[in-house]
Amino acid sequence: MAISAKLKASLSRTSWIRKMFEEGARLKKIHGAENVFDFSIGNPFLEPPETFHQTIKDLLDSKTPGQHAYMPNVGYADVRQSVAAYISKEQGIDLSADDIIMTCGAAGALNVIFKAILDPGSQVICPSPYFVEYGFYVSNHGGELKPVPSTPDFFPDIDAIEKEINSSTRAILINSPNNPTGQVYTKSHIDTLSELLRKKSAQFGEPIYLISDEPYRKIAFDNINIPGILSSYENSIVCTSYSKDLSIPGERIGHLAVHPNAQDRPELMQALAMANRILGFVNATALMQKTIGRMQGEHIDAGIYQKKRDLICNGLQLAGYTFTIPKGAFYLFPQTPIPDDVAFVSALQEANILAVPGSGFGAPGHFRLSFCVSDETIVRAMPGFERVMRPYQS
Amino acid sequence: MAISAKLKASLSRTSWIRKMFEEGARLKKIHGAENVFDFSIGNPFLEPPETFHQTIKDLLDSKTPGQHAYMPNVGYADVRQSVAAYISKEQGIDLSADDIIMTCGAAGALNVIFKAILDPGSQVICPSPYFVEYGFYVSNHGGELKPVPSTPDFFPDIDAIEKEINSSTRAILINSPNNPTGQVYTKSHIDTLSELLRKKSAQFGEPIYLISDEPYRKIAFDNINIPGILSSYENSIVCTSYSKDLSIPGERIGHLAVHPNAQDRPELMQALAMANRILGFVNATALMQKTIGRMQGEHIDAGIYQKKRDLICNGLQLAGYTFTIPKGAFYLFPQTPIPDDVAFVSALQEANILAVPGSGFGAPGHFRLSFCVSDETIVRAMPGFERVMRPYQS
Predict the structure, then answer these.
(1) DSSP string, A202-213
(2) N or C: which end of chain B has fewer CB within 10 A?
(3) Are A283 and A252 in contact (CB under 8 A)?
């Protein structure tokens, strides 16, 4: 066989998002791109803030010697200092540059974390629905992802999580604002989860990490507060990217932040730095590090996405769809009117509407819509949404 | 335990290069940076070509919508087309954009390749001395690296390699111009290796890949020709980075190129694309892809490194050191006058000279010098080199 047996098995589970992408290309060829309503992909709609290009140019014009050379694997000290200062304010806990590692986006950060903490047979628990790539990130490093169904309004079911924790559990991975539901966890959820992990870590004699993947933190609606995990739990690691904050997902820049009082922190930081190096990232790209170091706190206008949320929610509500209103991110996760979400998504395709079945997120009976599209796409797709729903209305 | 047992074991094998880096920092504090002669690190000495910054600025000024957004995981089609056109000329074989995947440097490319082709227990053979990180790249994905000692002048020992090939062998990894020896393999070496792999692939009924890691291809001396592997063997993959070509190692941009007639090529390309995605690279950074897409064939002046090679080789020859003259890259790998290379490197440290023991490359009895330093560093270090060698001279 020409390829790895393990990867071959993964290939056969090709992601739904990818399948929709291909179906979209097919439909666009037939009907014209403007007549296909593509809600399948989470590619940020906006361009980066004006300051992004100017910051890059300023850095280039500085002609700083060695500014494209290797730096420590964890990233530039001054950039990590800027990040630490910003997160300290955001999370209400004092961090220093030593708590930060610059990464190749949040996907890179998660791989680095799992490489650093997992062994064959390790378990990572994750509330579902969940971003399906998490399963690969965990299995890359020998672990197994255990999704635990959330409550019907997409909050973590902490009793159900408790039942799944065992001596192999190394981490709970949360994602708030959530992809695919747009839900934002409350401080009470974080605190209850933290108490549980403290208890279970003591019971099994090993730290169980709380890992928060937060790439959508800056896309929050209705002035909602997004509670951090660092102020609630010591064995916690936050990771994020600037992909959505600055609308630059192609540039692959992010960071991870470790709680300063994490158990065996020096060894953990060493392990994370080594994982960053040997997984082949080596370091986050020099120019993007320096750029975001100068842009801490800047982000695109989330109000634009909030308006799109309102537009799509109002439309779908009138059309008879049932859903939990997203409080952040740019996803909506409505119920399908029939249990077979794949069949319903196929019906939407007949109306040239591309969505992703909930099965692709471990939650059949739902479908995901990415509303990072033009207002026109939302408006023009509505008659199709209505038509497909009509047979199921009483 | 707070970290992975597997990674903890790796941490204890902390690289020699890292140890030297720390020793260097200590010595520089005591003696002043200008009095410590640091030959331990391969951080390119030069700044990028002038055109590098202008190319980035032109791209930013184009204000192309979505130029920082996600693109296909394998990279932009137009960039892959430029790379394919260039490599086709370089390697004397017709490649198309479909044969190229843009990667996060060569380290990223190697991890992607090993993720795509290795299973637990797979073996990868590599002539030694070798870049020690290769061992981690292979073991990240469940494989085991089997170093096979080279001939005394650092050419691959093909009979010895043949003896090590078994049914678990998935690839031979070569690196020419070589780190740490500066050796360049001849076309005859490549052809003989290719014949061997053809025979062994047929014997075991599975393709054994020839993988060539070529980040130093553009740093070649005395107009030497560096033969490619693609024109010799079908199941071959070339990977490289622009780190040394353009003196931009911090920017993490590279690519891999697969032979168009590789066995089960479509499946192999799918596996590589998926590995690139799920390892967390997602894609090579957008801006750097577009930049190098416009700079194919441009590179720094290798003549500058050739002068440094001559300077250090002449000095060390007079001082009584024995070595094979490097034909490329920016490393010299002399013999130590005593078998204990770690002891000899410690003696050099007494003269404020930082080098890396050959043990760090699987070749005790040698030490590595990186001559990507200023001419002044080479000249001012010579009295120290002479003094340390004197006791061993007849």
Answers:
(1) HHHTS--EEEEE
(2) C
(3) no
Give the CATH number, domain containing residue A306: 3.90.1150.10
User: Do A165 and A71 reside in the same domain of the chain?
Assistant: yes
pLDDT at B15: 65
- Min Cα–Cα distance to chain B from A337, Å: 32
Chain A interface mutation, best of B282, B283, B295, B372, highest count of A Cβ atoms under 10 Å: B282
Residue ranges for chain B with pLDDT beneath 50: none
Beta carbons of A109 and A103 less than 8 angstroms apart? yes
The reply to whether B179 falls in a domain is yes
Task: Tell me: do A285 and A349 sit in the same domain.
Answer: no
What pLDDT does B24 receive?
A: 82
- Is pLDDT at A21 greater than 90 in this prediction? no
Residue matched to tokens 């009976």: A365
Cα A368 from chain centroid? 14
User: Are B90 and B230 spatial neighbours (Cβ–Cβ below 8 Å)?
Assistant: no
Question: Cα A287 to the chain's mean position, in Å?
Answer: 23
Task: Tell me which H or E stretch contains B354.
Answer: strand B353-354
Q: Chain-centre distance of CA A349, in angstroms?
A: 26
B285 and B310 fall within a common domain: no
Same domain flag for B240 and B377: no
Task: Provide the pLDDT for residue B215.
Answer: 97
Chain B nearest CA to A392, separation (Å): 36
Of the three residues A274, A293, A312, the one that is the final residue of a domain is A293
Average pLDDT over residues A231-241: 97
Domain count within chain B: 2
- How far A304 CA lies from chain B's nearest CA (Å)? 17
Q: What is the DSSP letter of B101?
A: E
User: Using only C-alpha atoms, what is the Rg of chain A?
Assistant: 21
Residue A20 has pLDDT above 80, yes or no: no
Averaged pLDDT for residues A350-354: 94
Residue A45 has pLDDT above 90, yes or no: no
Do residues B188 and B88 both lie within one domain?
yes
Task: Decide the pairing of beta strands B236-241 and B254-258.
Answer: antiparallel
Of residues A193 and B33, more confidence is placed in A193
CB-closest option in B141, B251, B274 to A10? B274
**Where in the sequence is the domain holding A381, given as residue range(s)?**
5-48+300-392
Q: Are residues A207 and A93 in the same domain?
A: yes
Check whether residue B101 and residue B241 sit in a common domain.
yes
Helix A105-117 to helix A265-278 angle (10° resolution) is 120
Domain membership flag for residue B59: no
Is B160 inside a domain boundary? yes
The interface pTM score, or ipTM, of the predicted complex is 0.96
Average pLDDT, chain A: 95
Question: What is the residue whose two structure tokens read 């579902």?
Answer: A128
User: Does the pLDDT at position A13 exceed 90?
Assistant: no
Q: Per-residue pLDDT tens for A297-307?
A: 999 999 999 99
Residue A33 has pLDDT above 90, yes or no: no
Helix (H, G, I), strand (E, B) or coil at A80: helix
Residues B276 and B183 in one domain: yes
Q: Which of A11, A115, A283 sits opposite B252 (nearest CB)?
A: A283
Sign of the C-alpha dihedral computed for residues B109, B112, B118 and B119 taken in this order: positive
Report the C-alpha gap between A68 and B47 in whole angstroms.
Answer: 8
Give the best residue of A279, A292, A295 to mutate against chain B (max B CB count within 10 A): A279
**CATH number, residue B269:** 3.40.640.10
* Angle of helix A341-350 versus helix A375-389 axis, rounded to 10: 120
Q: Report the SS3 class of residue A352.
A: coil
Contact predicate A324/A183, CB 8 Å: yes
Return left, alpha or beta for B247; rule: phi > 0 is left, psi -120 to 50 is alpha, else beta: left
Does residue B60 belong to any structural domain of this protein? no
CB pairs under 8 A between A and B: 232
**Contact (Cβ atoms closer than 8 angstroms) between residue B23 and residue B354:** yes
Asked which of A263, A293, A323 is the last residue of a domain, the reply is: A293
